[in-house]
Amino acid sequence: MASGTFYDAVIVGAGISGALIAGELSRAGKRVLILEAGPAGDMDTETYDSYLTRFYATAAKDNQSPFPPSDNAPMPRSKDVHPIGGAHPDASAYIVQNGPFATDSTYTRVLGGTTLHWEGKTLRMLPEDFETHTRYGQGRDWPIGYADLEPFYREAEREIGVSADVEDQAYLGISFPPGYVYPMRGLPLSYLDKVVASDVDGMPVELGGERYDLRVRPFPQGRNGIPNPKYDGGKGYRPVGAVSTSQVEEGGRCQGNNNCVPLCPVQAKYNALKTLTRALQTGLVDILPQTVASKVHVDHGGRVSHIEYKTYHAPDSKDHTTGTVRGQLYVLSANAIENARLLLASGLTGTSGLVGRNLMDHAYLLAWGLLPEIAGTFRGTICTGGITDLRGGAFRRDQAGFAVDIHNDGWGWATGSPWSDVLSIVDDHNKFGAELRRALVARISHQLLLAFMVEVPPSTGNRVTVSADYRDQLGNMRPVVTYSVPDYTMRGVVYARELSRRIFQRTGTADHTWYDPEDYGYVTYEGQGFAIRGGNHLGGTHVMGTSARDSVVDANQRSWDHENLYLVGGGSMASIGTSNITLTIAALCIKSARHMVAQLRREAAVAEVATH
Amino acid sequence: MSTGVVSTARLKALLQAGVELELSTIPPYLCALYSLRPMTNAEASLVIRSVVVEEMLHMVLAANVLNAIGGEPHVADGHAPRYPHELPTGVVLHLLPFSREAVDTFLKVENPAHPHRALEADHPLLAGRNHQRHRARCLDVDEGFHPASIGDFYHEVIRELEAAAADIGERTLFCGDPTRQVTRDYYYAAGGRSILVGDLDSARAALNEIVEQGEGDMGAMFDDDGDLAHYYRFQQLRDGRSYRRSDDAGAPTGPPVEVDYDAVYPMIANPRSEEYRVPGLQAAAAGANRTWSELLLQLDAAFNGRPAALLPAVHSMFKLRDQSLVLLANPMPDHPGRNAGPTFEWDPSARAELGMRL
Questions:
Q1: Does 3.40.50.740 match the CATH number of domain A6-76+88-409+446-594?
Q2: CB distance B190–A46 less than 8 Å?
Q3: What is the ipTM of this complex?
Q4: Whole-number mean pLDDT of chain A?
């Protein structure tokens, strides 16, 4: 970065949102600076491989295990979450948990952001998800509908490189223009999916007065498969491979590695470094790494005048320098929690008072058991198929919808398989050598885990705040999260558990599900207890709407209060429905970037007139 | 050079030789790739891997051309390569661990103009293990045909195709069953795209792709897609520096490429399974050879009307890698300082067993 440079846009956060916007703006000839809180290695395989090495070498293989921790830009980790006891709030980890529910959701503060560990599912939202209030009297409507976002979904599917077949994905109102095909053909269902499907396909379910015939359906995936020759009017699609200095990799294909979450060993899974690399090729994008934005300053007219930042000198040292950057536009793309944190730390609570409120994250309910037959568990990427028929329908007046994942990594999420199985077979069953190997294979190859991703509607009481009492090493205020799982969601959870029992019955699965009352995610509802997991699908904290009174940003993710400030990412979403949020975030950001280019041109034209 | 007498028999022999030529380059690349110790030599691993998957594509492309003119491409049984293996350019392919010498051989394979010194039998890497060499089939297609390079070889094939098309008609020449072509649906890899061959233009495109990816097109290092030709990719390893698009050949100015020749399993040169005396190594080598042979049979089936056989072949390739790594990680007690390695020997019993399943 040239000191004193005035940029067309200053972007905070180099995840998928920031990378996409940097790419769009720079390709329109605009100069862009990205502030990135994490350390930025070179965009080569070495940095990526260092993540892989750290992941392989770490015993606790959580989502953050590949990434170097730093107290200057701390990351939430699932293993840091405890039941919130007497001492309120629990400030022992980066996110200060004010409860009553303790969230284990995470986000990753490195170049490329959370797409470095994302699962790669790229479901579109349902048309009804954009109008849940009108249709079902629940949640909030969006200021835009599915049809407005549809063209941008297609652009996002190109950028991410989605593998799916339209025939499988056109359901519950999801529509595509005639002749559209995804960039790459759908990835196959795993053998485990097929075993489950053989009993579940055609299973009838009555809900909300409607009948659904369940089926196991492949998920659209942000990982390289077989390019569809029909894509783009017959031009086809070229998969994007590993980010590398020598640029030799021609789009490595998914090989079914089971550790694709957190990290794909061959970069067949999309990560935002791919988008960032392309943005950097314009020569108009600068990145300032190890730099945490600490305050957004606003002038008397309400425009953002500059952003104050702290650049730390080394990940393990709190030595830092403070500086400011200026631009025509400012874009906060640091995820729902960090965007809200930065705004609130800057004293920008907004006209609506909704900054930080309406925090949403999918509530995951896990159910697990042993199938009667060997099902090839632990083969394939984490999740290739599931049941999506109950994502939408009239029942959403009363209870939350959900999507069901069939997990190819067995009981991993629930019990820590396969490592926990090794311990149990050795310690409890005294097996070793060949017998241990046989017992382990016998146990894990029967494992079935269903993960119900349950919708969480926006609720103003679920929120991010800041407090001067809680600061990180650089002195930045930490996010304080107040959160409870809404009853609407819990009714969906109760139903999900019931459905899991029926599916287990149909598949002959011995149910081993057990929710520990000591679990940090333990929630009781109407006398039943459940362990709820977070989904890392954070939304709602700068919610999108139709006016400054009842929302924080407009349909282009521009702040109502500050005309040159865009708050982008999951925080803008008015509902998160039952789709993993990254694809929708990407579509929204592409849409917003076009709007930013138009605003820059408009403001440049005005400035031109003013100087004459 | 065309003799004026059209012979599709000679064309078929040339293309079969081409299929075998491409196949023969794969085991030496795999030995170099798998001998890299895990977590080291990231760039070297990427470079070799990117080249070897393109060699696989080349084999598929040559097979598609042969199928297009009614031939039957074969890679199993007597068509399986044996090492050391002499290519038409005179360069001898040994099965070697990743080393400066191996990189130099790869440079020579990809570019005949590369000044390469053949390994002397007493070179420490070979240590006298310079077994009788096997000649590439394209050296024996007919007397008087001595291609100076792989590019020359394919240019001869293209000339022959053109002459045959002029003589008997393009339609008659390309009489092959289109369902025998390996399509993009089955060719699942990152080494570029399979090309369906059904006429002279597509045949030229397929064969030119082989030449371009290898040597580069008339000195252009990068192709239209921005891909660096194999020869220059290996130069990046030799010189420890990457190419930028604006660089002149031989003078890369990009970021450094770290190569650690010591972070390599010291595989014995040209291993033979009969030499493994430890039962564990014997079993591992037998397993790897069985997998290699199954893979060849799957490829053979894929080239002869059952392209779907390429899908289980992906599994065989992973299995071969895992079995090769077991061999590479184990020292040979009777050869101090040397580890075992995959031997890439044809196992005749594989056909009887796998034949049932294919």
A1: no
A2: no
A3: 0.74
A4: 94
